[in-house]
Write a structure and sequence with these properties.
The structure is a single chain. By secondary structure, the chain is α+β, with helices and mostly antiparallel strands. The chain has one domain. Helices cover 28% and strands 13% of the residues. The longest helix has 52 residues. 46% of the residues are buried. It comes from Novipirellula aureliae. It holds the Pfam family N_methyl. This is DUF1559 domain-containing protein.
C-alpha cells in the first residue's frame, strides 16, 4: 500500500528539463529569428553610418561657405606638389578646427625631397598624422594611417587619410590636368567665387566621397580594383575609356587614393565626375593627375555636397553625361535630375 502511494506521488511530479527534440526545435527557431533580424540590424547600422557621412559632408559644405564669406573666394590648391595644401586643410578653422590648422605651417612645404629620400617637413608632421573625423566616412573600414607615400615611414612618419574629395570638374577634354584651369571649382591656383558658378549652386557638385586606398603598391592588377589607382605612364590622353586604360599597359597599382587630407595632390584630396559613381574598375593617373572616381560602401551610390551646401545621395545608375555636367561650374547644362 505504501509502495503504491509512493509510486503515485512520483508519477504526479512535473517533468523537469527539455527533451532533445524540444531543444533542437528551440535552437532552430532562434536561428531563424536571427537570420531574419540580422539583415535588418545591419541595414539600420548602415543607415546610421550613411547619415553620419552625410552630416560630415554637410559640415564641409558649411565650412566652405564660411571660408568664402571671409575671403570672398573659395580656397584654391597650391602650384607645387610638395606645397599644394588641400582645400580640406584650408577650411579647418571654419568647421571649429582652429587648433588643428594652427599646427599647419603654410609657409613650409608639406614634405621635402622628390626622387630621393622623402620626409614630411618637421613643421607639418604633427598636423599631417592627425585624424580629422569630419573628413571620414564611417562606412569605410580601411585603415586611414598611411606610411608609404611622401613620408619617411621608417622614422615613424605618417599621414591621415580623407574620404571627402574636392571636385575639380568634369574631367572632360583638358580638365583632367589640374595644373591649368579646369571646368570645375578647384584646380591649382584656383580662386573661384560664387558668381563663377553659372550653372547654379544647387546643380554643382563641390565635394563627394571616395574610398581610401589600401596603402600598398603592386605590379599586378589587384583583385579589388576599387582599392587601387592604375599608373598608365606619362600619356596625355583626353576623354579616354578609363576602364580600357586599366586593361592596357600599367606601370603599377598604387593604393594611395585619399592618403593625406593635408595634401592637395590630385589622387589625395580631389576627384572628377568623369567616371560614374562606384565604378568596378580602378582609378587612373598619368603625370600624377588623371581620373579619380567618387566611391563609397553605401549601397547603390555616393553622397555629394552641392554648391549650396546641401548633401544629396547620387545613385550609381545616374546618367553619365548628367553626372559629368554636375562637376562643371559653367557648361550651361541643366543638372536638376541628378
Amino acid at each position: 500500500m505504501h509502495r503504491l502511494a509512493r509510486n503515485a506521488r512520483f508519477a504526479c511530479r512535473p517533468r523537469l528539463g527539455f527533451t532533445l527534440v524540444e531543444l533542437l526545435v528551440v535552437i532552430a527557431i532562434i536561428g531563424v529569428l536571427v537570420g531574419l533580424l540580422l539583415p535588418a540590424v545591419q541595414a539600420a547600422r548602415e543607415a546610421a553610418r550613411r547619415m553620419s557621412c552625410s552630416n560630415n559632408m554637410k559640415q564641409c559644405g558649411l565650412a566652405l561657405h564660411n571660408y568664402h564669406s571671409t575671403f570672398q573666394r573659395f580656397p584654391g590648391i597650391g602650384f607645387e606638389s610638395n606645397s599644394a595644401f588641400s582645400v580640406q586643410a584650408q577650411i579647418l578653422p571654419y568647421a571649429e578646427q582652429e587648433n588643428l590648422q594652427d599646427l599647419i605651417d603654410f609657409s613650409s612645404p608639406i614634405y621635402t625631397g622628390s626622387h630621393g629620400p622623402i620626409s614630411i617637413h618637421p613643421n607639418n608632421e604633427e598636423a599631417a598624422r592627425t585624424l580629422v573625423p569630419m573628413f571620414r566616412c564611417p562606412s569605410d573600414p580601411q585603415n586611414d594611417l598611411f606610411t608609404e607615400f611622401d613620408c619617411d615611414g621608417a622614422a615613424g612618419q605618417a599621414y591621415r587619410g580623407c574620404n571627402f574629395m574636392a571636385c575639380t570638374g568634369s574631367g572632360r577634354d583638358d580638365a583632367w590636368d589640374l595644373r591649368s584651369k579646369t571646368d570645375g571649382l578647384f584646380y591649382y591656383g584656383s580662386e573661384g567665387r560664387f558668381r563663377d558658378i553659372l550653372d547654379g549652386t544647387s546643380n554643382t557638385v563641390v565635394f563627394a566621397e571616395t574610398l581610401l586606398g589600401n596603402g600598398t603598391v603592386a605590379t599586378t592588377k589587384p583583385a579589388q580594383e576599387h582599392d587601387a589607382v592604375a599608373w598608365v605612364g606619362h600619356g596625355t590622353a583626353t576623354n579616354p575609356d578609363v576602364e580600357s586604360l586599366t586593361n592596357g599597359p600599367v606601370w603599377g597599382w598604387y593604393g594611395y587614393r585619399g592618403y593625406a587630407w593635408i595634401s592637395g595632390k590630385a589622387y589625395s584630396t580631389t576627384f572628377s565626375t568623369y567616371t560614374p559613381p562606384n565604378p568596378d574598375y580602378a582609378d587612373v593617373t598619368q603625370l600624377a593627375y588623371g581620373w579619380f572616381s567618387s566611391r563609397s560602401h553605401h549601397s547603390g551610390g555616393v553622397n555629394v555636397t552641392l554648391g549650396d551646401g546641401s548633401v544629396r545621395f547620387v545613385t550609381e545608375s545616374v546618367d553619365l553625361e548628367l553626372w559629368r555636367d554636375s562637376g562643371s561650374i559653367a557648361d550651361h547644362r541643366v543638372t536638376e535630375g541628378l
